[in-house]
Amino acid sequence: MPTRRSRTEPGAPGPATRRRTLALALMRVAALLVAMRAAPAIAVPEPTSTSTSTSTSTSTSKPAAAAPSIRAAPPPDRAPAPAPAPAPAPAPAPASAQPRAPAELARILAKARAGLPAQCADPPDTLVQALCSGELRVGTRADYPPFGSATADGPRGFEPDLARLLAARLGLRATFSTVGAADRMVALGERRVDMLVATTGHTVERDGQALFVLPHYYESHTVVVGRRDAAPRAGAGLDGLAGHTVCVVIGNATNAELAVHGARLMLFGGAARLVERLRSGDCALAAHDDSLLLPVLPPGAEVKASFAPLPWGVAVNPDGGAALARVLGLALRTLHADGGLRTLARRHGVDSAWLQAQQARWSAPPCDASAADADPRCVDAPHDSRLAPTALAEPVARLELWLRTHCGLPVTLAMLKTRIGLRLFLDGVGYSLALAAGAVSMTVLFALVFGAGLGAPTRWLRWPLRALLLVTQSTPLVLFMSVAGLALGSAGLGTPARALFTAVMVLGLFNGGHAGQAVVDARAGLRAQGLPHGLVAAALRARSQIAAFAVNATRASPVASLIGVPELLAAQTDIASFSSDSTTTFALLLVFYMVLVSLVMALLGWAQRRLQGRRP
Residue 171, by phi and psi: left (phi above 0), alpha (psi -120 to 50) or beta? Predict the structure, then answer.
């Protein structure tokens, strides 16, 4: 039987050789472990929070508590490199609930608190008063989501949360009062609030009413929005708004620019009502800040025009508010630089493109210097919305002051103090006089036409006029005028001159039809009495009724503003939109139409007396 061959191939090491190799390997591993135990450990430093470099390795949030990492020993044929010195342990980050204030902010607050409580009996300024009470009274809006809304838990939105952040930086508690666009400056001036965070645009004109904190915290543009398939087309600019009705909120400074370009303005007392009417389709065009309109833009709507960039600022009372404005400005600079405002904006769905640029600005030279709030490279200039004054501006202002002081009359003659206001006022007076004269003339003319046609022997003339008379007698004048304006606009003929002609025709037809019926009745009476019953004789018999309907046409002439006639009612509405005064404006409007109607009645009475001696 052949012997079993060994599995070891010729030339392979035998068992003794393999045992020696394994022993040598074990000795090398033991030496390596000894060397590794003797080598110093090196901790991996954590990147600081202000570093702008991108780390590709991951680390724990608390590296000091992590196990030290071990540096491998070099191969035996190389000498070990000297170990680097251990990195210093990073300082613990401050708690997020108590953000670290800049040194200057801390110094000003410490100086103000040093005089407490001795100064609390008679606080020298608003900052000391707030520190004594422990609260900061803030005016915010409740009708401007996502910037401010009223909820059962108190005000919510970007601005109330910003106010809470600012108050926390000062060690205070924020308390809130609701203000609107028309009364926010009044609330600040009457010291009902310590500061406004209420969508308050920083304008040159408002610099005389409030002290604005720098830097600003937001910027908006005024946009005009409307249906995509309706005129004017997008990109036509403000000139494309001429003759179109635009819904606006009373008190907006940019309303004057719309009026200058010929837009007819429909006023609303608050932003919430404006948004409601825009969504319902009652407002074909609406103008307001993009921060309000763009988030609620209805389907099928678009931006027709964008203009007037406006920085928003925190406002304090200029009397005693300088120290408060200073510390609020320092807190805002920190919120810009560390991205706190951007985070707040994203949380509330507010566009943060401008805030992103501000973060880059305030976190780098020269705006990270202590005096940067006075550097024009860092702080945006206020929007100059001032209107060119007239030569009567100063005398009128003195008259207003005298009436307010001596008579207690809060009269505001805004139409006499600015050039745009005076132009709108004079144009409105001219259009109103032309409208009244045209309405009276067309009323008399249509009275004669209906008087002759309704008594004509041919049916083809009588029946159409009777049908038209039925329409005028059964349709309200407002509806009649609105339909005529709609037809005018659909035909693309919406100019002030064409609107004036259309309004004159509508007023004349509406009132002349009724007066024509009186002429027909007078003609029938003359015929029954066996007297001459011609058209002139019947008109003379019915002259008092014709005069009465002519007066009615004059009274109804302000309805023409519905279709874009820039008469005095439309002009005063435009003036009130940017002057924030409606009481004096519409009181003067009432006086004007009382005088106008009285003048028309006097002229028609004179004409009747002249015709009284004439007999058919």
Answer: left
Q: Rounded to 5 degrees, what are φ and ψ at 265?
A: -105, 135
Q: Which residue has the tokens 């838990």?
A: 153
Range name among 89-98, 245-254, 273-282, 607-616 with the lowest pLDDT average: 89-98
Peptide bond into 366 cis (omega under 30): yes
User: Given the structure tokens 């509405």, which residue do they identify?
Assistant: 573
Question: Averaged over 216-239, what is the pLDDT?
Answer: 88
Contacts with 597 (C-beta within 8 Å, 6 or more apart), sequence order? 551, 554, 555
Distance CA 542, CA 532 (A): 14
Q: Express each pLDDT in 456-473 by its tens digit.
A: 778 887 888 888 888 888
The phi, psi pair for 346, rounded to 5°, reads -65, -35
pTM across the whole model = 0.59
Give the pLDDT confidence score for residue 382 in this predicted structure: 92
Those residues whose C-beta lies under 8 Å from the C-beta of residue 71, and which sit 6 or more positions away, are 39, 40, 41, 42, 83
Identify whether the C-beta of residue 574 lies closer than 8 Å to the C-beta of residue 265.
yes
As a whole number of angstroms, the distance between CA 130 and CA 174 comes to: 10
Q: Quick one: tokens of 95?
A: 């708690």
- Residue 69: count other Cβ atoms within 10 Å of its Cβ: 9
CB within 8 A of 545, min separation 6: which ones? 515, 518
Read off the tokens for 130: 């707030």
For the chain, the residue count is: 616
406 with 227: CB under 8 angstroms?
no
Q: What are phi and psi of 271, to 5 degrees?
A: -70, -35
Q: Note whether 448 and 536 are within 8 A (CB).
A: no
Q: Which tops the pLDDT comparison, 264 or 53?
A: 264
Looking at 382-418, list the stretches that DSSP marks H as alpha helix, in order from N- to C-terminal side: 393-402
| Token reading at 242 | 């001429």
- 3-class DSSP assignment, residue 352: coil
Contact (CB, 8 A) for 496 and 243: yes
pLDDT digits (tens, 9 = 90+) for 18-53: 555 555 555 554 444 434 443 333 333 333 333 333
Please tell me the distance from the alpha carbon of residue 573 to that of residue 224, in angstroms, as a whole number: 19
C-alpha span between 233 and 241 (Å, rounded): 10
| Each residue's pLDDT tens digit, 479-537 | 988 888 888 777 766 678 888 999 999 999 999 988 988 998 888 888 888 888 888 88
d(CA 260, CA 406): 35
φ, ψ at 608 (rounded to 5°):
-65, -40
Answer yes or no: are the C-beta atoms of 288 and 222 closer than 8 Å. Answer: yes
